[in-house]
Amino acid sequence: MSKPVTKITPNAAVFFDNDPQDELITLNIGPTHPATHGVFQNVVQIDGERIVSGVSTIGYIHRAFEKIAEHRPFYQITPLTDRLNYCSAPINNMGWHMTVEKLLQIDIPKRVQYMRVIVMELARIADHIICNGILGVDTGAFSGFLYVMQEREFIYEIFEEICGARLTTNIGRIGGFERDFNEVAFRKIEEFIKRFPPVLKEFENLFVRNRIFIERTSGVAAVTPEQALSYSWSGPILRATGVDYDVRAVSPYSSYEEFDFDIPVGTTGDVYDRFMVRNDEMWQSLRIIEQALDKIKKEPVGVFHADVPEFYLPPKEQVYTNMEALIYHFKIVMGEWETPQSEVYHAVEGANGELGFYLIHDGGRSPYRLHFRRPSFINYQMFAPMSSGMLISDAIINMSSLNIIAGELDA
Amino acid sequence: MSKVTLAEAPPGVEGAGFFATTLDKAIGLARANSLWPLPFATSCCGIEFMATMGSTYDLARFGAERPSFSPRQADMLLVMGTIAKKMAPVLKQVYIQMAEPRWVIAVGACASSGGIFDTYSVLQGIDEIIPVDVYVPGCPPRPEAILDGVLKLQEIVKNESLNRRNTPEYKALLEKYGIVTDNGNG
Amino acid sequence: MDKLDNQKIITRLQDRYGEGLAVIGEPHGLLTVAVNVETIIDVLQFVKEDPELRMNYLTDITAVHYPRQEQEFCVVYHVYNMLQDVRLRIKVFVSGPIPTVPTATTIWHGANWMERETYDFFGIIFEGHPDLRRILNMDELDVFPMRKEYPLEDPNRVDKKDFYFGR
Q1: Per the count of CB atoms within 10 A, which of A95, A210, A236, B21 is most buried?
Q2: Whole domain around residue B62: which residue ranges?
Q3: Residues 6+ apart with CB under 8 A from C70
Q4: Are A62 and B81 an interchain contact pair (Cβ–Cβ within 8 Å)?
């Protein structure tokens, strides 16, 4: 394997043969360009302000997740999933836990499922806040971003109350949660669904009928449903084209079928529609959280994990005092548990689209192969082809509306 | 009452209408309280930095109001997130483009040591390619920790001798990383 | 329209491909079939355009390395019928010093990067791919890191003394 290189390789630039006769300029955007919000490199050929063609280079934070996963027991893979889409880490955590639960065929109590729904929807709101806020910044309005970021901090506070971490949460466990939501957590969630709507309303008022915003976004980077499906798009950007594909509704997991919520869709698939779909999804997420809180009240109190002592880590205080608990703790942490040989594909609706986990297990301590279907990776490949003919400034807001998260893109 | 507090004056001789101190201290004070950060954010820590810049934690309180996205006009390089080997030459290039004096903070476990990613594709700490002044632990560090790192750096900046960047030791340090020193005045 | 179930998919596929298609099983309800490398593109085209199957959404392409098997590499396609929520997993086993599979970019645009990623990790050549280059790893890398024989950690590291790790 090669050592760190010390020179900058020309990368994609070699794919253009520059004809000295024409007036085209080759421009290198990235990998550290401030307008790209992440480490993406696009080498574009421009004719004035208009992009003629482009080549994307990715992999600038490739961290070999799939290779690491082959060397880690199931529990230690949860922190890896945190770092996929770090804007909404809990969804990844839960998705991974549900994949393992599907493999082990563990039944999860209803109350735990509702708790998961709350956490996942909060994470979705947190993710959409970032995307829409940044889209506002890119079109020239910084204040909207500051308004909603404040609420995002509050979501972090809720996560802190539940699991102790803010961003890379490592929330929950295989089989449920590490502990029950405490009183403060419930109170904060309830406070959140009261205090967030006015802020979101204000944010909406800043953008939805704002002339400048509409001029900048409407009709930009419009995508037809056929194109989107051919590129295997998923998530809000697919729904913006008018395809009502949402994993939560089409193949429900974690009891989503019991919830009453709408799937917002767009019509033209342009940047404005993507903004509106994400915006409406935040309202729907609030609805789901509200219903989940009601449902939890009807469930037996204090249930926060499935009754599977062979897979679920025993409480820490018992590990120190009880022999059996200590043995189980060791067995589970070391991955010495009986697991079936099988393959599982499990998909959840991540904030950016269908987040899939393809797990092949041979009964060993760690997965034989674990593949992440990462929506950012698959969504992003259309960026370069769709940029041709676009203005540079349009391509930039197109990129922010795709909400490509570098960690998920490069894995 | 205004809540604005003034920076503490360095030790010196004070009298009616005058205050004398060393040039080092005066310049150090000015530099420390007007550090222009260059956020080199690649992954998760970058999102925490966003929170640090945001209204709740507000990095601007410490004189870092203007995040500079151009390396030419920045003093403080904040490296946040995993640096893959593919990224390493880019980071080094950014460091070389910065003008002296320049300081580097490695924010988070990945930038400091590679973190949990001990793999074939990840650089095991940015100090393999550029010199680092302050390391901030955490995966990701909380905004308070990032602020603490910046405050620690301010201490370093305040106490740095004006001549440091011209010393043979400093040149040797940069040459160790294969960076040619040519800061124009030395 | 009747609900599409796994039995129907099997019948439909076997009517057309007969012996050329082997049913591996239905782990957790997801039908898994294996086809040989010559027919894979035809199968993908068929499941996409067949009016009953209508699996027009390519979820994912990836590969698995089985160093102890005769056919070392397995390319896995996940296709999906969105309307009825039915998934199908299609596997192709290949081997040889340069494992080669025809490209699916002729059917889905989205297969482009998925195949590039698979090439990058496993060194599987997708014949006819418009732009088969490394995508995530450095261009200078001379191995295919997801193959089982390559280690996770960088073997060039000098600071990691075995002594400190008790090995």
Answers
A1: A236
A2: 37-159+166-175
A3: C95
A4: no
Sheet containing A369-373: which strands, arranged edge to edge?
A: A342-350, A353-361, A369-373
For residue C148, which residues of chain B lie inside 8 Å, CB to CB? none
Q: Which residues of C touch A386 (CB under 8 A)?
A: none
Domains and CATH numbers, chain C: 6-148 (3.30.460.80)
Q: Quick one: pLDDT band at residue A313, thresholds 50, 70, 90? A: confident
**Contact by Cβ (8 Å): B92, B129:** yes
Count how many domains chain B has: 1
User: What is chain A's mean pLDDT, rounded?
Assistant: 89
Q: φ, ψ for residue A29 (rounded to 5)?
A: -100, 115
Q: What is the CATH number of the domain that holds B134?
A: 3.40.50.12280
CATH of domain A67-410: 1.10.645.10
Q: Rounded to whole angstroms, how far apart are CA atoms B19 and A268?
A: 68
Read off the pLDDT of residues C76-131 as tens digits, 9 standing for 90 and up: 999 999 888 999 999 999 998 899 999 999 999 999 999 999 999 999 999 999 98
Min Cα distance B42 → chain A (Å) is 6
The answer to whether residue B75 is domain-embedded is yes
**B9 part of a folded domain:** no
In a domain, B32, yes or no: no
Considering the domain boundaries, does residue B131 fall inside one?
Answer: yes
Subunits in contact with chain C (3 or more CB pairs closer than 8 Å): A, B
Percent of chain A with pLDDT over 70: 95
Tell me: pLDDT of B184 over 80: no
Q: Please answer yes or no on whether C142 and A62 come within 8 Å at the CB atom.
A: no
Is B181 a residue whose pLDDT tops 80? no
